[in-house]
Amino acid sequence: MKKDGKSKAGSVIEKAQSAILRHGMIEKGDIVVVAVSGGPDSVCLLDVLYRLKDSLGISLVIAHFNHLLRSGEDEEETRFMQSLSKLYDIPLETDEWREGPQPGGGSKEEQARKARYAFLEGVRERCGARRIAVAHNLNDQAETVLMRLLRGSGPMGLSAMSPVREDIIIRPFLAVKRDEIISYLQSGGLKYMIDSSNNSNIYLRNRIRLEVIPALEKVQPSVINSLTRLAGIMRQDEAYLAKEASGLFGGLKREEREGAIALDITALNSLHPALRGRVLRYAVIAVKGDLFRVGEVHIRALETLIANLSPSASVRLPDGITVRRQYDLVLFEKKGARPSVLKELVIPGPGRYHMQYPPQIINVEEFKGVSSNPSAATPHEAYLDAGLIKYPLKVRGVRPGDRFIPMGMDQPKKLKEFFIDRKVPRMERPFVPILTCRGEIVWICGMRPDNRFRITEKTMKIIRVSLSSE
């Protein structure tokens, strides 16, 4: 099974080795996880890497993930993988898909795919490997380009699969045609599994492979090469534009925290559309972690959002990402990062009250006479004249037009101006707790009480309000 093949086998090995060296896929001493489904492409990849492992100075681990989507074929597939592991004397790591709700949702096939890559990453970490090799070939690349073209993808989508992804996934076969792989296997007498689902026309990729591309080849026999050449051109241009956009993205960030980021709308609108769309993608990646299920239609919606004059418009993206305008900022936020608005809390009288967000305890106490020392108050507590307070009190978020008279002043001040003076980040302002009494601001919690509720020589009773961590 591992005997030297004929000229076509040599051609496959040469193309794979050339790709490995040209793209720096592997370094001497690396452990490489080889994703093997048992089909012709992955069996061929395993054999090629086995032949090259000594010259490259690497060791291999076989990783097989059973999707359990093909009834009756799973047990045979497992036995075949065990035979490959024994034949090549390479350790085998296996797992199977446990169907159930997956983060991000999607079709059953999408969920199984994500579970497979999570498994491969787990194997890589356990084995101390640096790379995961997958067997996507030239035909797969052409099919991907055509699929994305039909879906209306932009240049990034038409770049299709890259030889190296995220410095982890490597694709040594992107220059190898499917018929070359079959010839390689036949010349070496290599056995492989046939996935019956590959002949089903319920999947778009299968229809493209079985129906669309053969029809196109009648018009343009070299359509496979043409489509992959297009991907290469797009990938080259995309690399340059992505580098430019990356630098701009850093300069446009105004505020950032876990699960959220804010960009300057005016600066965004001044960019060329080719760069603006890429900056928006970087923002999505910053809060979502990837661009999975985020397509050109979503980027166009974001373009419309930032061009819109409405100060509170919003767009929802896949996987719980909300993008909304916040005056001169556009805010990207992941679901669960924080509530969309501060939930109002009613305080009927003295006691301890739990604030859900920010997660704090607000404590309300009453004292007779001026027994406490208000001048020693910390920013997290306020001493107020109880005679000027009427329950219930309320804790709410900031509202447009809010004004109060800061302690020590005698003129009202817009809350927006107060925040600017205090250098409170714009992303944080909507979530600063505001203590109110009958609609009037009593205390900007953690910052400044209102002067109208200050303690004077006439004060008979004091209310102390304080914030503490849970």
Summarize, please.
The chain has 470 residues and is an alpha+beta fold. It has 13 helices and 22 strands.
Rg (C-alpha, Å): 31 Å
How much helix, percentage-wise, in residues?
25-40%
Distance between the termini: 66 Å
The shape, in one word, is: elongated
Structure description:
With about 475 residues, this protein is α+β, with helices and mostly antiparallel strands. It has 3 domains: about 5-135 and about 170-220, HUPs (Rossmann fold), CATH 3.40.50.620; about 230-335, Uridine Diphospho-n-acetylenolpyruvylglucosamine Reductase, domain 3, CATH 3.30.465.60; about 345-470, 3-Layer(bba) Sandwich (Phenylalanyl-tRNA Synthetase, Chain B, domain 3), CATH 3.50.40. The protein has 13 helices and 22 strands. The chain has helices spanning about 5-20, 40-55, 75-90, 110-125, 140-150, 155-160, 180-190, 205-220, 225-250, 265-270, 275-290, 295-305, 415-420, and strands spanning about 30-35, 60-65, 90-95, 130-135, 165, 170, 255, 260-265, 315, 320-325, 330-335, 345, 350-355, 360-370, 380-385, 395, 405, 415, 435, 440-445, 450, 460-470. Strands 3-2-1-4-6-5 form a 6-stranded mixed β-sheet, with helices on both faces. A hairpin with a 2-residue loop joins strand 10 and strand 11. The longest helix is centred in the middle third of the chain and has 30 residues, at about 225-250. The radius of gyration is 31 Å and the shape is elongated. The protein starts with 6 loop residues before the first helix and ends with a strand.
